[in-house]
Write a structure and sequence with these properties.
This protein is an all-beta fold. It contains 1 helix and 14 strands, in the order E-E-E-E-E-E-E-E-E-E-H-E-E-E-E. A hairpin with a 5-residue loop joins strand 6 and strand 7. The structure holds calcium ion (3 copies). It is a single-pass membrane protein. GO terms for molecular function: calcium ion binding.
């Protein structure tokens, strides 16, 4: 009596321990081809039914075309060149369904001569954190404003309230700092200051010089740096 054991596809691929809980991260704006990490699933069937093929599918809210997975190696790479965006809209993670399938694929060089048509698709949830970068500049709705100040203005009087926004996601990169470019006109050091956090420009006397409509400088131009 000879008994031939014919392998059946009776085992699904299984994600290896911890694979879907890796702390995967990708920098905003990464170039295409950048490696994010890799996934591994195994299948205990015989050779016809144990080849694992990987695919990745964005969940609602995650854009198509940002991340690819090598179907054979399971390596995750950046797909869209420079397209991963943390800022607009503010995004912290890319969310995917990943699938490990044991469907026999002819072009692997393995003949699909198995008789069992069963195919297992093992899904998993994958989350990739986006690292923000400082790729947005502060912008102001009014890059140039003209204000009038009484010539008898006193120290501390408000001159103008500046306002700028920066679209970067993280506080570190979107906090705007206001700075008067005193190097352009050093005389301003004696007359004006700006609160670096609030953007409020005030009259700020540091010497005996005061604002004087009738003197040599009835008008002052203040250049600011926002960063
Ligand atoms: Ca299998
Ligand atoms: Ca910024
Ligand atoms: Ca950014």
């Amino acid at each position: 009596l000879a008994i031939n054991i014919i392998d059946m596809n009776d085992n699904p691929p299984v994600w290896a321990a911890g694979q879907l809980r890796q702390a995967l991260r990708v920098r905003e704006g990464s170039p295409a081809g950048g490696i994010i990490g890799s996934l591994l699933a195994t299948d205990i069937d015989g050779p016809l039914y144990n080849k694992v093929r990987y695919s990745i599918h964005p969940k609602p809210g995650t854009k198509e075309g940002l991340v690819a997975i090598d179907p054979i190696l399971g390596q995750l790479t950046v797909l869209g060149d420079g397209e991963i965006d943390a800022d607009v809209p503010k995004t912290w993670t890319l969310e995917y369904t990943v699938i490990a399938s044991d469907r026999c694929v002819e072009d692997d060089g393995v003949a699909c001569t198995g008789t069992d048509p069963t195919v297992w698709n093992t899904e998993g949830d994958l989350s990739i954190d986006i690292i923000d970068t400082n790729n947005k500049n502060p912008e102001t709705a009014s890059p140039s404003i003209t204000v009038w100040v009484w010539e008898n203005a006193t120290h501390g009087d408000p001159v103008a309230q500046l306002s700028a926004t920066d679209l970067d996601r993280d506080e570190l990169y979107h906090t705007v700092r206001y700075q008067i470019l005193y190097s352009v006109n050093p005389m301003l050091l004696e007359l004006f200051a700006v609160d670096q956090d609030s953007g409020l420009i005030t009259v700020h006397y540091t010497t005996d010089t005061v604002l004087d409509r009738d003197g040599d400088y009835p008008e002052h131009t203040i250049f600011l740096n926002l960063r």
